[in-house]
Amino acid sequence: MELDILPLNLPSDSHRPLVIAGPCSAETEEQMLCTAQALAQKGCHLFRAGVWKPRTKPGGFEGNGEKALTWLQQVKTSTGMLVGTEVATPEHVELCLKYDLDMLWIGARTTANPFAMQSLADSLQGIDLPILVKNPISPDLELWIGAMQRLNQAGIKRLAAIHRGFSSYDNKLYRNTPTWQIPLELRRRVPELPIICDPSHIGGKRELIAPLCQQAMDLGFDGLIIETHCTPDKAWSDSAQQITPDVLNYILSLLIIRNEHQQIDEIVDFRRQIDEYDHQMMELLAKRMRVCRQIGRYKRDHNITIFQANRYNEILVKRGAQGALCGMNADFIATLFETIHEESVRQQMDIINQ
Ligand code: PEP
Ligand code: MN
């Protein structure tokens, strides 16, 4: 057993996934209370707000620290919601315990650092709070599991993972690439560990929140953590990705929660991984075809023939050999690339005959 997991015991409605909502950062008492009251009215039970903010560069808003913990306490007493924040050091943990927070999460930058994780785990020894562990910024499942194992060794069993996507150099659509097969592999390896999706940090922009939430539900995630702010455009951090409590409620009301009565057996999990890989293959094929069309335009403008036998042979031979090295039949790979090549030629013919 890689991890020893007990139920989180956090409140959620039967018809909805577990939802944690609240601003990226605790900015002012007024912003916290107005956001929290609206969320509580819409039936939210779990409130988030960052008290210490890890910023990529110095000079940004780094959080209000201890003062903001008093606002979280006010949120809790005035709305009845349970409250949580990000902790990165033992001092943060100590203060959160002093202010009676109900759950803590560990940020992506902290999960990535085993020294920081170990000192956090030491400071949490014997504390019975739900701890949510965000994935490390790099796509490294072992590091993610390792971070949770350190907490486990300190006696923490009410654990959940938060999938917030992975940083990548070349990324246009998402702020952090989802690479869904990593949380899905985590699900396969530790089936009883709840996985919560953070569409706000994956998407980085409002328009992506709803489709990402649906995707997470379709993949069988257990919950969502969504940055919500009473006036998102005025937010002091992550403004582009925050939504109002009204919009959150609307998104949640449209979510289709599929009734997966089958047990979550290994086959279901493997199939999800296959779907994800197929999706990636489609994206790659589309990218490859785009380049082929660019070549087609070049050939057209420079009067070069479309079919170049040497190049075609080179592709079949090289890919066949590569396929064999990866344990696949060389003929199968050659046939696959013949088919791909056929479609590339067809697309280039279209361009030349335009
Ligand atoms: C956050 O939740 O506001 C945050 C800083 O997230 P992450 O650690 O995923 O970047
Ligand atoms: Mn944020």
Describe the 3D structure:
- With 354 residues, the protein is of the alpha/beta class.
- It contains 13 helices and eight strands.
- It has helices at 29-41, 66-79, 90-98, 108-111, 114-124, 141-153, 181-189, 199-203, 209-218, 245-254, 266-302, 309-325, 330-352, and strands spanning 18-22, 46-48, 82-86, 103-106, 131-134, 159-163, 195-197, 223-227.
- It has an eight-stranded parallel beta barrel with strand order 1-2-3-4-5-6-7-8, surrounded by five helices.
- The termini are far apart.
- The model has no long low-confidence stretch (mean pLDDT 94).
- Phosphoenolpyruvate binds next to loops.
- Manganese (II) ion is lined by residues 24, 227, 237-238.
Number of strands: 8
Report the bound ligands by name, code or SMILES. phosphoenolpyruvate, manganese (II) ion
Note the main sheet. 8 strands, parallel, barrel
Shape: elongated
In terms of per-residue confidence, which ranges show pLDDT below 50 for 5 or more consecutive residues? none
Secondary structure class reads alpha/beta
| Average residue-wise pLDDT | 94
- Order of SSEs: EHEHEHEHHEHEHEHHEHHHH
Sheet with most strands: strand arrangement: 1-2-3-4-5-6-7-8
Distance N to C terminus: 61 Å
Strand fraction equals 5-15%
Output the number of helix runs: 13
**Which value, in Å, is the CA radius of gyration?**
24 Å
Helicity, as a percent range:
40-55%
